[in-house]
Amino acid sequence: MTVALRYLRESIAPLVPMRERTAVEASLGRALLEDVTALRNIPHYRASAVDGYALRATMTAGASPARPVRLSLETCQWVNTGGLVEPSFDAVVMVEDTSLDGSELLVSKAITVGANVRPPGDDVMRGQIIAREGDVVTPQHQALLRAAGVEGLLIRALPRTLYLPTGDEILPVSYEGPLPAGTVPETNSILLRGLFSRWGFPLTVGDIIPDDPARLRQALEKNMDAYDLLLVGAGSAKGKKDYTAEVFSSLGDLLFRWVRTRPGRPAMAARIKGKPVLCLPGFPMSSVVVAMGIVFPLLAHLQGLPAEEEKALSRALGSFGSEEGELLFAHSSPPGVEEWLRCQMIQIRGKTIVWPLPGGASSMRAMSEADGVAIIAEEKLECPKGMKILLHKSKEISLERRILFQGSNDPAVERLISPIRRLGCDMVMRSVGSVGGLAALSRGECHLAACHLIDPETQSYNDSYIVRFRGNAQWRRRQLFFRQQGLIVAKGNPKGISSVEDLARPDLSIVNRQPGAGTRVLLDYLLTEKNIAPSFVKGYDRQCITHLDAASRVAYGLADVALGIKMAAEAMDLDFLPITEEPYEIVYPEECHDHPGIVAFLEALEDQQWRAEIDKIGGYRWIC
Amino acid sequence: MTVALRYLRESIAPLVPMRERTAVEASLGRALLEDVTALRNIPHYRASAVDGYALRATMTAGASPARPVRLSLETCQWVNTGGLVEPSFDAVVMVEDTSLDGSELLVSKAITVGANVRPPGDDVMRGQIIAREGDVVTPQHQALLRAAGVEGLLIRALPRTLYLPTGDEILPVSYEGPLPAGTVPETNSILLRGLFSRWGFPLTVGDIIPDDPARLRQALEKNMDAYDLLLVGAGSAKGKKDYTAEVFSSLGDLLFRWVRTRPGRPAMAARIKGKPVLCLPGFPMSSVVVAMGIVFPLLAHLQGLPAEEEKALSRALGSFGSEEGELLFAHSSPPGVEEWLRCQMIQIRGKTIVWPLPGGASSMRAMSEADGVAIIAEEKLECPKGMKILLHKSKEISLERRILFQGSNDPAVERLISPIRRLGCDMVMRSVGSVGGLAALSRGECHLAACHLIDPETQSYNDSYIVRFRGNAQWRRRQLFFRQQGLIVAKGNPKGISSVEDLARPDLSIVNRQPGAGTRVLLDYLLTEKNIAPSFVKGYDRQCITHLDAASRVAYGLADVALGIKMAAEAMDLDFLPITEEPYEIVYPEECHDHPGIVAFLEALEDQQWRAEIDKIGGYRWIC
């Protein structure tokens, strides 16, 4: 992408700065296009620098604390700091060096001519340059300029950008009623508007252009003169991109197609009438990557600002700074591309840990949940666990007050995040299953794990697993609640499923959870109990990592049944056949007991609003 | 100030969050007050994850590159990435794994049911929480929320702040015509508006309240209910502050008077009807210090956010980050107060150097020119040269492209800053006199020095001084121009001054420049030439550090005559009696020759616009 950007910079000349006259009050953050000189002195009169008495210096000759000089109050004048020193006086004695005795002033210090008097122009002289070409106006400038009598400023006009969404399948976001299958609401312009607004640049969004080269061509020709930068939002279709390139080529020079970046690869740029025209990929995250990595620096280039790549990236991402952390797990980066990873970050035992969120360029959720972006260089392929990477933050995060939960997925615990936040802390979660959580805790990779693991030998929950993973460490345990596990089946139970035995029916297929998930351990236990071999269960190998995900497979007919909790069935409007009740337990190391996040977690468990919400959904029984 | 702030936090309860409903599009940067659940699935239909052909997976059984499966195109359907996979199909084969042969499709890979098909809800499921209470809305959230069918959000209303300027001497900034002596334009509200706007908080500014306790009381009572925070802008008068405290006490509890901070000491706070009311000091810089150090964190506290002092300071200053540097010269900090220094910063030979700008709390110019603020802790008194201090930046600065000029003050060189900036670089200047500049250069404390120093022995300029200071270092020299030095006298020369000899007249007083200034060296040379001892020259010991400053003393009748350059006389509309012409020369170390700032400086010397400007003013003669 850096190469693409450099090539763009070479191919497109910066704009001749367009001038705009504006009031000082409306100039915050804008760049001056001329030196500004003061129109009046500050102060514009002889002002006292202190609270005290204006007088003639000669009158204080010989004064000392031991032998104060006595003056009639009529020969001097009280003056406040900043007040006018009348022409008949040439100095001000500080009030601290005087005392009053009836109508007489006792002065205990001899002062010289001009003492404590600020001459006109002491701070700023009329005609003096007080702000310069290139200054970006701050609140401090604004106050100074107005104080110096300046009203209007010549500032650099901002580059004008037009975004044109395209695609037959794209509907306006304001579309009323349910979306037809195969259509996509036009949300990329919302994303871009937000980014442009953060950056302080204007953005105009055009109407959606259908998949018709003539229409795109027409739209570009019509708007070429009124804008400095045109962005075309591609739909996701391969055919479409081809015609965009064709249209670009027919109007000007195609500068590049594809960039070596993931996501963001299908970006494209042309120079039409000397102006840059970019095609942004349709996937939201791809669009963000190209917006931050190319569009923002290009806006800076158009303004004639120097190419400072590190700084541009930090500003493009929102100026929340960057922070180094160690990769939580190994990551393979595809060869030949620079990869932008959406990551979350945590601090644990003084170590900062970073991990990429799952989901491709199409995932709006991962994009939204990420704390920021880490960039894996093109030449980097295998990134081992523990490798240091730099996270460019796009949010303000408070690492000291945030905990990482790894373990069994549970929607009730997920809902604890808000009460924890109300207590000024935060929790991020990774659903890695009960066993995965205990293993992560034993490696010191989370503050908190949760499990519901039945031991087939003893038929008791959790104890044997915790003992195994804990080793010599001190861990605290706490049971949160019992929850019902059961069979999630389609509404009305059309296949007449009634028990675990039915899972072996050849006309049924299930969806399972990942190895190490407590629910999968439970399924294995239940199957063993009924003497059913997994190979007789159709779909046993199809895995989901959350209850809700499993339920959704049932809801969309991809499976007939899943073992899971009642809340997931309810959320998907499915039927639920209770099988058993299990204890859900959290575990955390002794040394985390005082962590503000753990303290908040434990306090949040008593949150009545949260409990009432869970009770309403049902399928949970409180332990106390 | 930290103590004052903590006390305020303890005394004032955070606001009960006020709720506000807003459109997703208008919610950027605002905090959510509730969890938000998706109203529809993303995708909301079975979508293809690739460009390819939708088909039934069983049709591909046994396919391999060596033995592709042949299918009629009628049994499958082309589908774009993101496109609808019709219910009759259960998988999508990537276009890369196919080829066309007439009306037949050759599939070279066997795929399983569900391959490359994203089920509905694959990214986001209806009913799933997609943004949480406490989230600060990002562009990414906005796009996600709208894609999930969410239109409105419940967000935290921002605290409402009212600023009430006070003071009989304060005039509206829009005041027409010349300001009467002793009045001050009301610019603190402009400063506060700018700061609030950067912070993202609303600010209402009231009318100026005259110095009348009853009027202030009335204004507070009237606005108490409509605002969450009231700020009273004190004039600078001591008497006034007294009555403000009185009014505060009569309406509620006075929490503190004075803070141990400089500037900013006269801050005051009260709790009236449970709400915080602050009195901001009148001097602009004092007002900024209290705004950043108390008002901003208080706004965070009112919103119930945790007290994160470091972060709050960085955000209050504008999120330009902080950087450590070494003090350029020793600084004495007053005892018992935390001192906020307005500083500039430079990088030289890999070392970062910081220095405080001169001027007290009243200086709007220093406030505006500073790169940021360094805070000297209360217990720190003597800060030796080279001490590390942390600069909290309030501007974006590019240290690699910036040079520091130290040396003789010259207005023409000052005007070079803009052409240098047009070349993408920057220059900051310290007027330390010709000798001071050479000394700084010899210590490696600037990139560039300038001098015009006559050697009384040889009557030649600069050579002997440069040889003395250079030592073994390699320095480059370049003469920029000749400039006229002469006597600056009042308009019309009322005292009939005609030559250097007149400076000894008992009815005249002069203003001199600081020791080491080339102009002072010249004066000494001229006096020696005429056999006049300095003790015969009245005002010989009164010092200014710039030509303009010296001229202004003459303009305001504080002196009758000063030696200086023609430009300064012109700027102040004074008369000028030429005495001599001197060469003005710059010097820089060999190793700085390639510094982008020096390159830009040398290039800027050829700037025709700059030369024309200087020619217009007059008193300069170009060397080439």
TrEMBL record, chains A, B:
Residue ranges of the TM segments: none
Pathway(s) this gene product operates in, as recorded in its UniProt entry: Cofactor biosynthesis; molybdopterin biosynthesis
Top class in the EC scheme: transferase
Cofactors, names only: Mg(2+)
Cross-referenced SUPFAM superfamilies: MoeA C-terminal domain-like (SSF63867), MoeA N-terminal region -like (SSF63882), Molybdenum cofactor biosynthesis proteins (SSF53218), Periplasmic binding protein-like II (SSF53850)
EC number from the UniProt entry: 2.10.1.1
Highest rank taxon of the organism: Bacteria
One of the GO biological process terms: Mo-molybdopterin cofactor biosynthetic process
Keywords: Magnesium, Metal-binding, Molybdenum, Molybdenum cofactor biosynthesis, Transferase
Domain MoaB/Mog as annotated: residue spans: 162-301
GO cellular component: cytoplasm
Pfam families, alphabetized: MoCF_biosynth, MoeA_C, MoeA_N, PBP_like
Molecular function as annotated in GO: metal ion binding; molybdopterin molybdotransferase activity
InterPro entries: MoaB/Mog-like_dom_sf, MoaB/Mog_dom, MoeA-like, MoeA_C_domain_IV, MoeA_C_domain_IV_sf, MoeA_linker/N, MoeA_linker/N_sf, PBP_domain
Catalyzed reactions per annotation: adenylyl-molybdopterin + molybdate = Mo-molybdopterin + AMP + H(+)
Statement: the UniProt record of this protein carries the keyword Glycosyltransferase: no
Signal peptide coordinates: none
Stated role: Catalyzes the insertion of molybdate into adenylated molybdopterin with the concomitant release of AMP.
Family: Belongs to the MoeA family.
Protein name listed in UniProt: Molybdopterin molybdenumtransferase
Native species: Aminithiophilus ramosus
